[in-house]
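Hello,

Following up on my earlier ticket. Below are the two sequence lines again, exactly as submitted.
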Amino acid sequence: MITTVTLNPAIDREYFVSANIPKEHRFIYDEQDIRVYPGGKGLLTAIDLKNLGYPDVQNIGFVGGKQGLFFEKMVQEYKITTNYVYTDNEIRNNVFIIGKDPVTYTHYNDYTYKVDREDVEELVKRFRRGIVDSDFIIISGSIPEGVDFNIYQRLIEICNELGKEVYLQASGEALNLALSEKPKVVVPYFKHTRKILDEKVVEFADYVRMGRKLLERGAQYVILPYHCDRLLFAGDRVYSLSPVDFCLKNWLGTGDAYNAGFFDYVYRNGFDFVEANRYAGAAALNIAEHKTIFLNNRKEIEDNLGRIIIKELEV
Amino acid sequence: MSTVKKYMMRTLVSVCEDDILEDVIKVMYKSEMSVLPVVDSENKFLGTIYSKNILKNIIPEKFGFLDSKQLLYEINHAAENLSDIKGRKVSEYMSTKTMAVSEEDKMYKIADIMLDNKESILFVVNERGNLRGYISRADILYYLLAVAKEEETD
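Thanks for your patience. The regenerated structure is below:
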């Protein structure tokens, strides 16, 4: 089994309108102009892995209220095993309004979800028994209000006790604290703050410095998003990963496809950090160049492998 | 031949033997399930806990046999009884006789088991006995609907 953890999932609702004009009343008659799907880092990776043929993929996290049950039903459609702690507060709803002419993209990101302390303790208990037969654990995404920043640290501590390897994609204080438990692979998420370990990252040298600092603080390997590239840190070695002839059509789902590609490679070939990243890059490239947000099969990844260039850097 | 894997609900919502009834009731309410699987610390299926078993322990008679004047008294009485036992452990109220089915079991076999046991839900385990989800009467009916459709087409 593969386990993904999504503590702050959301129902994503996309509305496509002819034009998004404030104060105007719009009617939507075509069902194709409304898309509702389960969202949240970790969950999309779980769906990708399921599509790649893994029979047992589990998603652990919180869901809340009646909308939480609806969310779970949507996830079940993908044959993902859900392991959710039900909370009193309703789950988040993210709203995207896409205007067609002129093209506009308006995003209302809902950060109102709160969980109670007893829910957190229940999640930790459920996590411990839920990962017993998991080979890999991927923990990613933000944490809802009510959850302490040491949550990822606690979950990784359990993984270490049970001998499970962790791939962590996190940001801010939750990431800072989790490093002490020495997760196998760390991918910092810093799109909103532009900060890693509380330090600004602007120039290339900042990225290299922070990648190394993440290793010093406990990460065994680091993957650092650098514009459209990735910087890979393994011991003293630093690599750059770049796509060739890259045509961006869609960001949504690229990071999740990257994670799924990485897992898929490691699961089938053993842990080769550089080659797993090449495969992961090819998976992300497939999503970035298409409108779909999910991976469908390995062939579409393998077709891109030749367009992923990895170079060792002298820095 | 269709297997359980195709129709089951894949959820690991569960409780442990040492959880208390108050928490179980909250999980039942929030998950909208009147029966929950009981597992050990390694997610192995041990049995089930039914809401009706908890009710039986707090209500002396069924509501249906009570007259309306007595009903309020009985509800208050039940609430008091529940207050007394809400801190008790699942192990005291769970049933260990419930059978689990396998992901690979054939659907027609499940229909037989459900009819024999009068269970509305059967929990599903993998080859190591770890909980994997459940299959309900509605899933069986949905399966039978598909079978009937196939026969009509033939």
